[in-house]
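pasting for the record
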Amino acid sequence: MTSRNSNGEKSSCIFCNIVNKLENTEILYDDDDVCVFRDIKPASDYHILTVPKRHIEDAKNLQAADKELVEKMLAIAKEMLQKNNLSLEDARFGYHWPPFRSVKHLHLHTIAPESKMGLIGRIIFKKDSYWFVSPDYVASRL
């Protein structure tokens, strides 16, 4: 279930609008559960967001029943890297941990190559920090 209004109007959530194709955003991957598109402020050469079509505010709002969805999001993100001939070993995956997020819709960042991230990107997407956590950490809480 998505957050599309019954009358087809835009939502206040930009990511809900993107997954419902109400924005002019290039969709890189799309299925019944998730959607993938580029981050508008890339931290490296390749920076994508994998988002669930169902509106989930953030990683803290995930439930045990969402474990399969979280695993699928990571699997698709890894497939996207491989499809683009990018190394899984030189990539960073993670979620912003509330209250440190700019969009209130769950999204997995996939950034590659990690080795090309600038100083600001390394700070914003700092591994295992108070504000950016790994998919493993998120899954461990479910």
